[in-house]
Write a structure and sequence with these properties.
The protein has 494 residues and is an all-alpha fold. The chain has 18 helices and six strands. The protein has a two-stranded antiparallel sheet with strand order 1-6. It has a two-stranded antiparallel sheet with strand order 2-5. A two-stranded antiparallel sheet has the order 3-4. GO terms for molecular function: antiporter activity. Pfam families: Na_Ca_ex.
């Protein structure tokens, strides 16, 4: 068995990004003694488990929360995508961008490449997936053209700045303000418009869609319903495998994500939510506030770790709720819906990070070049949450919100996430410009992103603002071509 020092060295050699819940390098190097024949099957199984948790979080919790918040706040699909979806899917990437731009040499270029590659993945592959699931479906002409056009203008402006090899503070501020202007325009166009009225009048339809979303990601049921006679053995095996981890996954998610419907009220789960949610939120901010930070609490001159203080306070609140609350609430609580949205975002972000780290470990074990891992694994890991959330919305009968989120989410990442990080960096060197590192792979990502956006705008407009199914296949083919070209460039520039 390898020594602890060797295991720690192996762990640091595997990853340059924040640590995961599981140390996949230690699993390979220490627990399994570096035997790829054992590591690859185990990591592949963990990969499937992470994806299943991610899918369950999106379909059973994130989709209903977005639908209910959009209905209660009377948000149009465009406004819901520009605010709820963009914030939920883009917040983790915003922190990652800030960390990358403030990192050592080479990290700023990697951060920019990750944002662009993730945007290309969502605008092509995720849009293609939504099209294949829900097409043909109509999109509102003005909001659709506005969303794609603004993303196109934002990407073009950033491309121009990148080609100049430097960015000033006013340009970085302009990126953030441009998204604020976009949200303001969405609000102005939707205020009292037909789209907002349609959302207000379809609250019952949204609630019905939530039930669809709860089973949309259940693969064995879907396969068995559509092909019961062709693959009976495969369906049985898939159902048995799914049942092994389906209940534990659902149980853990119920413990940490509150249910918003009075009919699903359960005192045990509510008390568990009150106890565990604050701890998980504290963990999500552990990079800014370490869990062992000591503070004075109740007893003077005695410092307790912050996690113990939060645990004590949440336990007291949970016990009070258990003793005082006797019956379920009569109506749906907006605060519970908001907390459900936040906690489902936490699980989507956390599991996406686990997928990223697990994929990176598999890539290193199989001796993939770091450049290729960066152009593929990093982009996919940062975008899988967006993909699963948008696909879950499309399956739940909300393709308009899903397709709007495919543009608003990456634009949020580019303008607010990357823009905020650039504001910080340009402010440090003000009045001088912040130098941008040039790389041909980033230029290719820019060109592909612009082409995919222009193609989607032209094709959907030509189809009279209906998303055709064939365009989904075209977008996926274009992304595969982009991936091949990016890998070739990364391999040649090693």
């Amino acid at each position: 068995m390898a020594s602890p020092a060797t295991c720690a060295a192996a762990s640091s050699a595997f990853f340059a990004h924040p640590p995961a819940l599981l140390d996949y390098a230690a699993i390979h190097s220490c627990l399994l003694r570096g035997d790829a024949r054992l590591s690859l099957p185990l990591l592949s199984l963990l990969l499937l488990l992470h994806f299943r948790i991610l899918a369950a979080s999106a379909s059973a919790h994130f989709t209903p929360a977005v639908s209910r918040l959009a209905a209660r706040l009377r948000l149009s699909p465009s406004m819901a995508a520009a605010t709820l979806l963009a914030l939920g899917n883009g917040a983790p990437d915003a922190f990652a961008s800030a960390a990358a731009l403030s990192g050592p040499a080479g990290m700023p270029r990697a951060g920019l490449a990750a944002i662009l590659s993730a945007g290309a993945f969502v605008s092509a592959f995720a849009v293609g997936a939504v099209a294949l699931i829900a097409a043909p479906f109509a999109v509102p002409p003005a909001p659709f053209a506005r969303d794609v056009f603004f993303y196109l203008v934002a990407a073009s402006a950033l491309f121009y700045v990148y080609l100049s090899a430097e960015i000033f503070l006013w340009q970085a501020l302009g990126l953030v303000l441009f998204y604020a202007f976009f949200v303001g325009l969405v609000f102005y166009m939707d205020l009292g418009g037909d789209e907002a009225k349609a959302v207000t009048n379809s609250a019952a339809e949204l609630q019905m869609a939530n039930g669809i979303g709860r089973v949309a990601m259940d693969l064995p049921v879907t396969v068995e319903d559509h092909k019961p006679q062709e693959y009976p053995a495969l369906c049985t095996v898939l159902r048995k495998v799914t049942e092994v981890w389906e209940w534990p996954i659902a149980f853990v998610l119920k413990l940490t994500i509150p249910s918003t419907l009075p009919s699903e009220w359960n005192k045990f789960y509510i008390c568990a939510n009150i106890c565990l949610c604050p701890l998980l939120l504290l963990y999500s901010f552990s990079s800014f506030i370490p869990l062992d930070t000591r503070i004075v609490f109740l007893l003077p001159q005695i410092r307790f770790p912050i996690w113990a203080v939060v645990l004590f306070a949440s336990l007291c609140l949970a016990l009070s709720h258990f003793l005082l609350e006797k019956e379920a609430p009569e109506t749906e609580n907006t605060a519970s819906t908001l907390i459900s949205f936040i906690m489902s975002v936490f699980w989507i972000s956390t599991m996406a990070g686990e997928l990223l780290n697990c994929l990176a470990a598999i890539g290193v074990i199989m001796d993939f070049p770091p450049a290729i891992l960066g152009m593929t694994v990093l982009a996919w890991g940062n975008s899988v949450g967006d993909l699963v959330a948008d696909v879950a919305l499309a399956r739940a009968g909300q393709p308009r919100i899903a397709i709007a989120g495919c543009f608003a989410g990456p634009m949020f990442n580019m303008l607010v996430g990357l823009g905020t990080a650039l504001v910080v960096q340009t402010a440090r060197v003000y009045p001088r410009a912040y130098v941008l590192e040039f790389h041909v792979g980033i230029v290719v990502a820019f060109v592909f992103l612009l082409l995919s956006l222009m193609g989607t705008l032209l094709v959907v407009t030509w189809a009279r603002f209906r998303v055709p199914r064939f365009w989904g296949y075209c977008l996926m083919g274009m992304y595969i071509l982009f991936t091949i070209v990016s890998i070739a460039i990364a391999s040649s520039s090693r």
